[in-house]
TrEMBL record:
SUPFAM superfamilies assigned to the protein according to its UniProt record, in alphabetical order: PLP-binding barrel
Taxonomic source organism: Tenacibaculum pelagium
Coiled-coil residues: none
TM segment ranges: none
GO biological process per UniProt: D-serine catabolic process
Pfam families found in the cross-reference section: Ala_racemase_N
Span of domain Alanine racemase N-terminal: 24-203
Name by which UniProt lists this protein: Alanine racemase
InterPro entries named in the record: Ala_racemase_N, D-amino_acid_metab_enzyme, PLP-binding_barrel
A molecular-function term among this protein's GO annotations: D-serine ammonia-lyase activity
Gene3D superfamilies for this protein: Alanine racemase
Length: 392
């Protein structure tokens, strides 16, 4: 660990400027990519979760390495940005239902330039209620374009979606009646609760079985009662980083798994199912000021009590944990600052002004967007920066 971060520190000190930055180690990323591929069963499609990896080159890199053409998107500005870049082979499934206004805005503001992506045939909009299906049918009529609808089903997470076969039947009837305007493209049933529930409440085995049973019943409903909606290439999406390895079994009802965070492994993903994965994303920020001990405003007289060294870093207060050097702590008495944070370090730690400290983000989705770009690292060396997706 020391050698690894000492080298990164040296690299960053030799870099053209010193500001807080987001690093992704491509060699570690490659190892994580290999691991996901070992956890995929042969007849399951991989779908890359864009919100967890919001950079154009990062997504491209993973799509190429995994030979994948499927993405899951959660944010309209990202959808618009991707619509201008993707080719005619890609498939996008929305990971949450978009307000109808937003879907309409997307279609009314399609990018001028594109790379062959068809926003009507290559997007599956997610619908979670009867009302939402009606709204999307109306939108299709307004646009004079057929659009694709994927139905969110509640497999036990209780984050919305159709929860009973009776309601689902009504939703499917509505789609069937309006087949000239909308096409049924499959189901999305997200199941991270399966591994997150305390055992005392429900075992992983039981939660997984219940989730799969409901998923299977939903599929059977389409197959048996709505044969005109059934096709071999429907998308039956499920899973996420925490549950990917569970779906390796042929008993899984899903044929499409969506993952993102396990490639970079922020701290929220330090969970037993992902123990083989390594963190590949780090925040690095320079030390601006250093003092032998700590002086708190108003408590100057008690300076002798605060014996640890103190440093001020460039920025701070990110959704992240200090990681290297070890035993760095934010000073709670001084208060948090996103501008210059006061940190305490042990007197044994040698850290000088202009050295870098390293953090691990709690999550990738929002945190990555705070750094303007990503600095990829290959074999310990900083590479050309990668762009983030447009966020407006
Ligand atoms: C619908 C859905 N699928 C999949 C995922 C998995 O993403 P990740 O692998 O980044 O946890 C998420 C995460 O929020 C999700 O909401």
């Amino acid at each position: 660990m020391d050698t690894y971060f000492n080298n990164l520190n040296q690299q960053l000190k030799n870099h053209q400027r010193a500001i807080p930055c987001l690093l992704i180690d491509l060699d570690i990323l490659d190892e994580n990519i290999e691991k996901t591929q070992l956890n995929l069963s042969t007849n399951t499609n991989l779908r890359i979760v864009v919100k967890s990896l919001p950079s154009v080159e990062l997504i491209d890199y993973i799509l190429q390495k995994t030979n994948t053409s499927k993405l899951m998107v959660f944010h309209q500005p990202f959808l618009t940005d991707l619509a201008s870049r993707l080719n005619n082979q890609k498939d996008i499934l929305l990971g949450k239902p978009m307000p109808i206004k937003t879907a309409e805005y997307f279609y009314n503001n399609l990018p001028q330039q594109n790379n062959g992506f068809n926003p009507f045939t290559q997007i599956q909009w997610l619908v979670d209620t009867q009302k939402r299906i009606e709204e999307y049918i109306d939108l299709a009529k307004k646009l004079h374009q057929k659009i694709r609808l994927n139905i969110e089903i509640n497999v036990g997470l209780h984050r919305g979606g159709f929860s009973s076969l009776k309601d689902l039947e009504k939703g499917l009837q509505l789609i069937q009646k309006n087949k000239e305007f909308v096409e049924f493209s499959g189901f999305m049933g997200y199941d991270p609760h399966v591994v997150k529930l305390p055992k005392i409440i429900r075992s992983e085995k039981k939660a997984f079985k219940l989730a799969n049973q409901f998923y299977k019943n939903c599929k059977d409903l389409v197959k048996n009662d709505f044969p005109s909606l059934w096709k071999e290439n429907l998308t039956f999406n499920g899973a996420g980083s925490p549950t990917l390895n569970l779906h390796k079994t042929t008993k899984s009802p899903v044929n499409d798994v969506s993952i993102g965070s396990c490639f970079v492994k922020p701290t929220t993903f330090d969970i037993p199912p992902l123990k083989e994965y390594k963190p590949s994303a780090f925040i690095a920020t320079p030390v601006l000021k250093k003092f032998k001990n700590t002086t708190i405003p108003g408590l100057e007289k008690f300076k002798f009590l605060f014996k640890q060294q103190s440093i001020f870093i460039y920025g701070g207060f990110w959704k992240a944990d200090y990681y290297y050097p070890k035993n760095i702590k934010e000073n709670k008495l001084f208060g948090n600052s996103t501008n210059q944070s006061l940190l305490n370090i042990s007197n044994k730690t040698s850290l000088e002004i202009d050295d870098f400290v390293f953090l691990r983000p709690h999550q990738s989705e929002f945190v990555f967007l705070q750094f303007g770009e990503i600095l990829p690292i290959r074999k310990g060396e900083i590479q050309k920066p990668w762009q983030l997706l447009k966020n407006k």
